[in-house]
Structure formats: C-alpha cells, structure tokens
C-alpha cells in the first residue's frame, strides 16, 4: 500500500495540533471523557475505545496525572456532554476534506466550519459528499529504530492486521476499524510502543493544486480548522502539499 505518502500528507494537518501541546491535550481530554461516557467504564480493560484514546494520549506525551483527572471527571457526575460529528467538504482546487469534531454546541461548530470553508474558496458539503473517497481504517504506527521489520510484520499479521508498510523510519500497520483494539492489545503485550493508534480516514484518490492562490487558501483552511477547539482531526486528499 502507499501508506507512507498518505501518512506524510496527513501529518501536515496533524502536525500543527501536536506542536501546540496545550491545545492538543484539551482535544484529547474531550476524547477521554466521551470514551468513558459512551463506553460505560473508566477502566480501559473493559472499554476498548478508552484504551485507544489512552494510547493516543501517551503517544502525545500527555502526563499521566492529566489522563487520571480526565477519567475521574468523566466517571463522576460532572463534565460537559459532547457529541461526535463528522463534516465533509471541498477545499479550493477540489480537495476533499473530512473533519472530525467533538462539540457541545453543533450550531456553533457547523457555523465555524461553514465560515472557514467559504472564506478560503471551498464549501461545506452534505453527508456522503466526499466520504466515498476515503477508507475508514485502523492505523497503528511504530518507530522502526532498533526493531526488526520482519519480526514486527509477523507479530502484526499474527495479531490480525490486514496490511503492513515500512518506509525505514515508521512501521505502519493497517487493520479493519473493529480490529484496531485487538491488534493494539496484542502488540502492546509484546512490548511495542505506538506513535499513533486510532481509526483514520485514509484517502483512496488524490487531488493536486496548481494555482498558488489556491495553495495558500488550502493551507489557511487547514490551519483554521486545526485551531478550532471543537475539531479533533482533519483529513484530506491533497497530494502535492508544500514542504
């Protein structure tokens, strides 16, 4: 699979979030609260979604005390009520964009997204307008340094992974969405640490932008989306992302 190029394209959108640790932790805290409330347990052994979010939190270097406070808040009577909403749209140049949100006010979030797309030459679409251009896939990534590619691949496939890719620096393991937790737990038990482990929208087709003005608008759209506290992740099929 061509996961390596997709990963680096996607990383261009996720990097801005990760660079702002406080903002990233706020977004993960929301995910932890929702995972506990929807999964019915603050114990990751009995809540696979929570286990996945905790893995994500640790990969982002979120302190254990922060994670513990979020779990205690979610297990109690307090805490905001968030809902998960996925938005779809087109950026300038016909780039397909998927936006995952956790919000306590869908009208505010939808209004913000509509403004971002309109301001940058795109448009917010209806459900299903671009989702057909993405595969919802469980993705686990492991730093390759010091590990045997053959051994990791064998362990991953034995655990139930559907595909394996390496660029020499990162081992990228694909799973069916419902198998992510099982594969993650199996590899975790063997001592592997993850750069990321979550369900993602992986593009199946790409879009290029030739016009410099549209390139600037697309970059600005991504930045505006990532800076919004309601937005958890941004996925797109823009292929020729500037370095």
Characteristic terms for this protein:
243 residues, alpha+beta, four-stranded antiparallel sheet, globular, disordered N terminus
- Secondary structure class reads alpha+beta
Largest sheet, strands/sense/barrel? 4 strands, antiparallel
Q: Low-confidence parts, pLDDT < 50 over ≥5 residues? A: 1-5
Using the CA coordinates, give the radius of gyration: 18 Å
Apparent shape: globular
What distance lies between the first and last C-alpha atoms, to the nearest angstrom? 22 Å
Q: Biggest sheet, strands in spatial order? A: 3-1-2-8
Binned, the helix content reads 40-55%
Number of strands: 8
The mean pLDDT is: 88
| Beta-strand residue fraction | 15-25%
Order of helices and strands: HHHHEEHEEHEEHEHE
Put simply, the count of helices is: 8
Question: Care to describe what's here?
Answer:
37% of the residues are buried. This protein has eight helices and eight strands; from the N terminus they run ααααββαββαββαβαβ. Helix 1 (3-19) crosses helix 8 (212-227), helix 2 packs antiparallel against helix 3 and helix 2 runs parallel beside helix 4. The chain is globular. A four-stranded antiparallel beta sheet has the order 3-1-2-8. It has a four-stranded antiparallel beta sheet with strand order 5-6-4-7, with helices on both faces. A hairpin with a 5-residue loop joins strand 1 (83-90) and strand 2. Helices cover 46% and strands 21% of the residues. With 243 residues, the chain is α+β, with helices and mostly antiparallel strands. The chain has helices at residues 3-19, 21-39, 48-59, 64-75, 106-119, 149-159, 180-189, 212-227; strands at residues 83-90, 96-103, 123-124, 134-143, 163-166, 170-175, 196-203, 231-236. Mean pLDDT is 88; it is low at 1-5.
């Amino acid at each position: 699979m061509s996961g390596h190029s997709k990963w680096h394209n996607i990383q261009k959108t996720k990097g801005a979030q990760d660079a702002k640790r406080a903002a990233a932790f706020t977004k993960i805290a929301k995910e932890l609260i929702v995972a506990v409330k929807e999964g019915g347990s603050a114990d990751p052994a009995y809540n696979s979604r929570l286990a996945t979010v905790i893995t994500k939190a640790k990969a982002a270097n979120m302190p254990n005390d922060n994670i513990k406070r979020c779990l205690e808040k979610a297990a109690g009577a307090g805490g905001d009520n968030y809902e998960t909403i996925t938005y779809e749209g087109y950026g300038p140049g016909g780039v397909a964009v998927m936006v995952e949100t956790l919000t306590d006010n869908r009208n505010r979030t939808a209004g913000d997204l509509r403004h971002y797309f309109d301001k940058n030459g795109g448009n917010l679409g209806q459900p299903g307008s671009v989702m057909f251009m993405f595969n919802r896939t469980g993705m686990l990534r492991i730093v390759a340094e010091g590990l045997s590619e053959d051994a990791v691949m064998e362990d991953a496939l034995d655990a139930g992974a559907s595909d394996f890719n390496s660029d020499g620096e990162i081992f990228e393991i694909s799973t069916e969405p419902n198998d992510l937790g099982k594969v993650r737990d199996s590899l975790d038990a063997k001592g592997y640490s993850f750069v990321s482990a979550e369900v993602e929208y992986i593009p199946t087709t790409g879009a290029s932008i030739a016009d410099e003005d549209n390139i600037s608008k697309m970059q600005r759209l991504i930045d505006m989306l990532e800076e919004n506290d309601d937005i958890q992740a941004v996925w797109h099929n823009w292929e020729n992302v500037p370095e």
